[in-house]
Write a structure and sequence with these properties.
The structure is a homodimer.
Chain A: H1 18-30, H2 33-41, E1 47-48, H3 49-55, H4 61-73, E2 77-82, E3 88-93, H5 95-126
Antiparallel strand pairs in A: 1-3, 2-3
Chain A binds a DNA duplex through helix 4.
DNA sequence: CCGTATCCCCGAGGATACTG
DNA sequence: CAGTATCCTCGGGGATACGG
């Protein structure tokens, strides 16, 4: 194989090479919808549970808890409990978490910068030539 | 210069403000597992369907087709059919697709660079913690 | 306020078989 | 080879209720 088209993410699954799997698993986690939003929302400093819940529209309490636990386990956020009444829990990016902020925000900003172009592309695509009914000679068609 | 904790991704859901929704939808799509892998795999140039299938380990034919259609609809990849026998179809990043490459690869490389640290964090986390007093960073107590 | 524990549903996505 | 069409499963994730 030429040096060009190699696998970027995976390496070959050697008999005992769990490293590739690890990369995939981690990428799946941080590429996760809610993880991305939580990381991005914690950009400017610590937030408590209820603030996160309010700022991340549409997340359920369950998913917020679960995802935060995952990120904590990954060493990306810290969880700080203040034994006050009522209880208060702060979440904050760790050092490593803040390094993740850069690629994550790059993705977010790319999306914001290109959303009009993408919506336009949708309209173009959806207006594509309708597939002909029945077999027509020499026509390469597409389903809708 | 900080309105500190503003929503980075969403704006408030005005009665008719689909723009925010659009951003979320797009981010969900490109943050998608298979989309990320396809974009990354197309980094160095066009690939045909079967090559993509082979290079992206674990993807089913169905998901490859579906995800490629989505990316094509987004204007991120082009689909080129060569009317040969047997048929041959090439997929290639568009201009816009290549601009996406940068943030995506940043994420991929971050993951590769930090996977050992994350695995280490897992081991630390999974070692049962001892309860502590006062506002302390880290876990106060956790159910198992 | 900050969770955890249950129930339950729906749809992402795999497996398989079939066509141009 | 490059899809499309079905079927079917399995677990992500919402809704709800309760506990510290």
């Amino acid at each position: 194989m030429s040096p060009k088209h190699t696998e970027v993410i995976d390496c070959r699954p050697g008999p005992d090479d769990p490293g590739c799997r690890a990369t995939r698993e981690i990428l799946d986690r941080i590429g996760d919808k809610w993880s991305l939003y939580i990381i991005a929302t914690l950009e400017h400093g610590p937030l408590r549970f209820s603030e996160l819940k309010r700022l991340i529209e549409g997340i359920s309490q369950r998913m917020l808890t679960l995802t935060l636990r995952g990120l904590e386990r990954d060493g990306l956020v810290t969880r700080t409990v203040y034994p006050s009444v009522p209880p208060r829990v702060d979440y904050e990016l760790t050092q490593m978490g803040r390094t993740l902020l850069e690629p994550v925000m790059a993705l977010v900003h790319w999306t914001i910068a290109h959303k009009e172009a993408i919506v336009a592309a949708h309209e173009r695509f959806d207006a594509a030539p309708a597939p002909e009914q029945g077999p027509v000679k020499g026509v390469i068609y597409r389903q809708r």
